[in-house]
Design goal:
Order of helices and strands: HHEEEHHHEEEHEEEEHHHH
Number of helices: 10
Number of strands: 10
Strand order of the largest sheet: 6-5-4-7-8
Strand content: 5-15%
Distance between the termini: 42 Å
Largest sheet: 5 strands, mixed
Helix content: 25-40%
Structural class: alpha+beta
Oligomer: single chain
Amino acid sequence: MNAIQLAAYFADEDKAIELVESLMWPNGAVCPHCEATDRQFRLQGQATRKGLWKCGHCRKQYTVKVGTIFEGSHIGLNKWLFAIYLMCSSKKGVSANQLKRELGISYKSAWLLCNRVREAMNVEPLRGMLGGGGGIIEIDETYVGGKVQNNKHKNKTAAAGKKTIVMTLVDREGDARTFVVPNTKKSTLQTIARPVVSGTAHIVTDENPSYRGIAKHFASHHTVDHSKTYVRSIIFHTNFAESYHSLLKRGLIGAYHHVSEKHLHRYLREFEYRWNTRKEDDGDRAFAAIRQARGKRLLYRMPSDQRAN
């Protein structure tokens, strides 16, 4: 579905609730408290808030928002749908400031909404290994961050000009995985790569010495000397990984302008999600993100008992 086909859901809260319910509960309502699937009743009194259900087993009331990224939010589901669609259809992302203007909400609400959507886009890195069946995996690193001389803030901190290292693994026939790494040491890069790449994969990297010896864990390892050529024997190159980095940097610079190291991993999940669903249309990509919203919560301030962990 495209934006025109979804416009009716963006404008009507009732239709938006029905759509989210159909995506979350394809086989009927499920109580988020006791997980019962039968004896679920929709409450429809005049004073009843929209989308309210009651479980005939545990006798508790709930909506489709409970137990998802939407829980506790006073923003209407129609606005959530519009925001998710924009984030899924904008190739280089959409800023919280733009969503603030588009949705008519505060910047703080828009910023938290964006990060909650990114939480829904996140998938477990070990859910499926890259390069299964002898695929080709490109591995490369890039540095994210601006230059000190370009930072014109008079109160800039010591973090100004600090670069953050991002490591990317791209399966030419499948998904990509991106990680924020503290350094480019051999122990760091190879420790990250081994659990997420199948042992049958063929690895292609540049001449970074940190990848020496990685061949013993995989089917093969080929390198490209970028001081001489960008492609060796036609198939040995890291162009996919470099293309991914180009898209990432253009998005960070053009849409967000600045991303702190503290939250960079959330933005990486967003770019990773769009890349991994690049063969789907915008509507299907947005619907998939909504289905993944169950069981994921992100609070503006974490409870005190979780801060220490």
